[in-house]
Amino acid sequence: MDATTPPRSYKRTSTVVQSADGTPIYADSVGDASKPSIIFVHGFGLSGIAFDGIFEEGSEGRNQWEDDVYLVRYDLRGHGRSGKPEDAASWDSKRLAEDFDAVVKAFGLARPFLATWSLGGLTVTDVLAHFPPRYLSGVILLAGYPSAGGVLKIATPSALALIPPLLDPTNTIATAQSFIASFTAPESPQLSYTMQQAMLANIVTQPKGCTVHILTRTQDEAGFWAAGKEGLPMLVITGTVDPLVDQEGTRKFFEGTEDKQWKDIQFVSLEGVGHMPFWERPAKVRDTMLGFVARYRTVQ
């Protein structure tokens, strides 16, 4: 599509799906469902609004993502517009995998790409613990933590220092404000006031029972490493000045041992970028992700 081509009118859909245990999961989409699909998963305490820059990109109805892919996002359980169960059983890894699968089925997707940001990356391990590698076409980590076990190896001291105050109900607002302020690098485009306030509202309205489970739950990484060894493609995008994710720690995590390596993995480092690369360098991230999808897309 060139600059003279009129923008297409793509269908936008929002729904609330029921996960296997009955938890309601909010999801929405935009684009042509016949194209390769990318499911976006947000980070801790937030919701799908974090990806508004992608889902509402451009002016006069033009969204360059939609020319190539079908965009889907959902609010993780315990977040945003989805259900917020506080019992321990509702936070078993299988439940999180079932949430993802409920979204896949609701939108009629086949072998979607899974793109996760920050702590939303734990969804990758949830999914691969309960579904075979060919369930996905590829995985994209956006400044992400791929597993609960990987957090201690990848998180910076600043990120780890946020955990105790986030679990403390007496200073949620101040901690949330500091957390949100760390998303973008000083030289990057800053989050709009509206986005900051929406994110703050997401965090402070999350029940503490959910927060505790999110930050302390465990996962079985066997399926994750098996998928990497089998050749499931992965794209890792990080920023050089991310205060929450250690670039070198991320690389070392994926080097692993002989039994813990990712066979087909690409690292992209963005100079001067912080923890929110898709906001800070939207065109670069879009082109990189769409190139990855084009390379590994399957007939859907």
List the helices and strands and how they pair.
Layout: E1 12-18, E2 24-30, E3 37-41, H1 52-55, E4 70-74, H2 93-106, E5 113-117, H3 122-130, E6 138-142, H4 148-154, H5 157-167, H6 172-181, H7 193-204, H8 208-216, H9 222-230, E7 234-239, H10 247-255, E8 265-270, H11 277-280, H12 282-296
Parallel strand pairs: 3-4, 3-5, 5-6, 6-7, 7-8
Antiparallel strand pairs: 1-2, 2-4
Strand order of the largest sheet: 1-2-4-3-5-6-7-8
CATH superfamily: Alpha/Beta hydrolase fold, catalytic domain
Strand content: 15-25%
List the total number of helices: 12
CATH topology term: Rossmann fold
Helix content: 25-40%
**Average residue pLDDT:** 93
CATH secondary-structure class = Alpha Beta
Describe the 3D structure.
This is Alpha/Beta hydrolase protein. One of its GO terms (molecular function) is hydrolase activity. Residues 38-287 form the AB hydrolase-1 domain. With 300 residues, the protein is an alpha/beta fold. It has one domain: 3-Layer(aba) Sandwich (Rossmann fold). The protein has twelve helices and eight strands. An eight-stranded mixed β-sheet has the order 1-2-4-3-5-6-7-8, sandwiched between helices. Helix 3 packs across helix 9 (222-230).
